[in-house]
Amino acid sequence: MSLFGTNTGFGSGGTGVFGTTTTDSHNPMKDVEVTSPPDDSISCLAFSPPTMPGNFLIGGSWANDVRCWEVQDNGQTVPKAQQMHTGPVLDVCWSDDGSKVFTASCDKTAKMWDLNSNQTIQIAQHEGPIRTIHWIKAPNYSCVMTGSWDKTLKFWDTRSPNPMMSLQMPERCYCADVVYPMAVVATAERGLIVYQLENQPSEFRRIESPLKHQHRCVAIFKDKQSKPTGFALGSIEGRVAIHYINPPNPAKDNFTFKCHRSNGTNTATPQDIYAVNAISFHPVHGTLATVGSDGRFSFWDKDARTKLKTSEQLDQPITACCFNNNGNIFAYASSYDWSKGHEYYNPQKKNYIFLRNAAEELKPRNKK
Amino acid sequence: MAECDAEWELCKENIQPLRQGRSVSALHQALCQQQEGNHTALNQQKQAFESELRLYDGDDPLDVWFRYIKWTKQTYPQGGKESNLSLLLERAVTRFTADKKYHNDVRYIELWIDFAEGSPEPMDVYRYMQAQGIGTMQAALYIAWSEEYEKRGNIKMADSVFQDGIKCGAEPVEKLQVFHRALQARACRQMMTSMTDQQNDDDDDDEDEGSSEPQRSSLAELKAKGKKKPVVPINRANASIGYARGLQFKQPLGPKQNSRLMIFDENKVPESEPQEPKFEIWTAPPTARAKENEQKPEKWTNVKMPLKSRSGLSVAVPPPKPSFQPFVEEDDQPPAVTPCKINPAVNSVLSARKPCRPEQTPLKMLQERQQMMQLQTQEDGKIREQSMYCKELLFSGATEFCFEELRAERYRQKWARKLQTQSSAADDEKPVESSEK
């Protein structure tokens, strides 16, 4: 069920307003450009859950705003609404019924955005910027989990100003993911903690990092029975680790692979290594997408341990990505990720969000 | 505060003494904070310093480091891993090694001396400093250096260090002279007492004697056996073994062999011999970390098996790890929680130290910097990798930053400045009405 129809649909062009094919490399993959993208770097993207009809995309940015677009079946994007924080937005997520959006910001607060009424209220407060936010739906409770640079992980019932629970972490939270009943948090100084969420959240295990460099992004994957069974962890130096929680044979089942590096086979020039900015798993196929500072995205099959595709290089890093609920659309954002510091920041440069048909390209290599 | 008073008494042996003494109020506050587990304010302050380190663009970067380290010493009286003090010192000293303007800056010297005292080989550090011209015009260097010699019982060298300092015209000269005289006085006293003790020595057997004397004579006795030289526990009795208490070590100057081989150090050759020639090789400061059970970091650790180069050289890289598999427990959960004062957030207190990343050793860092300055020359046949992100910015302080933290910090500062200009503009224009945007 492809959302974009034939190849000659909106997929072609992806050009500027004037309809001419642009020669600059801002969209070498000729994917659909989302209209009215944010004015500053996009930090996070999230598609609406399956409980809601249609596809709605939420994007948070360093311009302190969160925007919502409707993605129609013909590929057109319609900006729907926008909300503001008093600081850059670092993470967004949806509630399981698709009626609320949660946003986390550098202003140390998290807000709940009711899309029907277009109102927001603050639901969380930390001592430092909130880096991650996830909705947890358990059989006996529901809450929002926020991970912050103040080294705490807090759980919020949206009706109360005080957290239901607060867990101390050894270091600042850098990235997290939740697939009930498992949550993974990767912290500074290469910390890695797995939490179990049944009954109430508690720390399950601290894992020695499979990577040698700073943790940057993490995503949980599921097994054939749709139970979370492991996670993919990306670092700042072009490497992703696939780690199972309870594998039959850890040495063989867990592995790492290099990605987002340049001129792999040419040994005369040094190999450039880029940060992996985000990882997303395809909801149906279980294959994964990684996006990096080098301005490329890649699709991988972790079971066959092969690369499925690598894109052309965009002229900016790709900072965020996500799949929609049925895996037909892959969204990725092209904007500056601050990987080279303040000097390489050009506020004039436009930021983009692209949508790509993901139905075919992410099919696994060998169907077992 | 009464509680905190008691607290200080309870743990005073854990508090590392500072050369310039500790402010009592700061000490109380630090201990109270640790007691209550109030880490938030500490974290925020630390984060503020870390940000300042990275975003500073003024003329005096040393100032930020100095203030940060000073704060750390006051706030973490016990030192320890949580404070990152040794790491900070290491980074601070290596960062400015090439910067001539700081070479005789009092603050910089103080950092170097702290660094030396915390390192396993202070003598190497002092020699390096002298070779590089760091602190050679400051009395502090010579004082600390001669103190080190004195701790090891080498009065002769301690004396000559002072003479060096005076010869170089180190400032302030009076201070040097005062300390020098004190040293000489102590040396005389030692000789007198040791001469009387020598007579007692001949009578006694090689047993623990020491009850009549306040010195730790038991160690000195052992050396006569020839088995073990008195390993002077320098680091344990750090600042208390000072110039003021030089008597604590009985070092008979009689038999020549004893005075020379005071300290048995398996890693080091007796110092009196190759002093001069060693100056050549001190092009890079020695590693500072006094870690146990750690293999010495080698340059080859992070290099994969190199391909055969064009010239046909194939270097055999020594394997960085032992050939057997050390036993690792399957279960890597933290130990069962017993009620203890250690904050769970600082669980890492008892964890095994991971081998430090090669990038972090001062030797490697200095070399990396030299490489960058010389416009990296191609090395033979090695696959070189280049990280395409701002490593310096991320890793310059004691802890790492991620891109977002860097950016958020810059955003925060920009916003703070904006607010400040707004409020001052509002004040200028409308003094009566106070408006806050």
Describe the structure.
The complex is a heterodimer of chains A (368) and B (437). Chain A has a four-stranded antiparallel beta sheet, with no helix packed on it. In chain A, strands 2-3-4-5 form a four-stranded antiparallel beta sheet, with no helix packed on it. Chain A has a four-stranded antiparallel beta sheet with strand order 6-7-8-9, with no helix packed on it. Chain A has one helix at 250-253, and strands at residues 32-33, 42-47, 55-61, 65-71, 77-84, 89-94, 100-105, 109-114, 119-125, 130-137, 142-148, 152-156, 165-168, 173-179, 182-187, 191-196, 202-206, 215-222, 228-235, 239-244, 255-258, 271-273, 276-281, 288-292, 297-301, 306-310, 318-323, 329-334, 352-357. Chain A is an all-beta fold. Chain B is built from 16 helices and one strand. Chain B has helices at residues 2-10, 24-36, 39-55, 61-75, 85-95, 106-118, 122-132, 139-151, 155-168, 173-203, 217-225, 256-260, 278-281, 362-373, 391-395, 403-429, and one strand at residues 385-387. Classes of the chains: A mainly beta (368), B mainly alpha (437). Chains A and B meet through β22 of A and α3, β1 and α16 of B. β22 (271-273) of chain A pairs parallel with β1 of chain B. Chain B: InterPro entries: Bub1/Mad3 (IPR015661), Mad3/Bub1_I (IPR013212). Chain B: One of its GO terms (biological process) is mitotic spindle assembly checkpoint signaling.
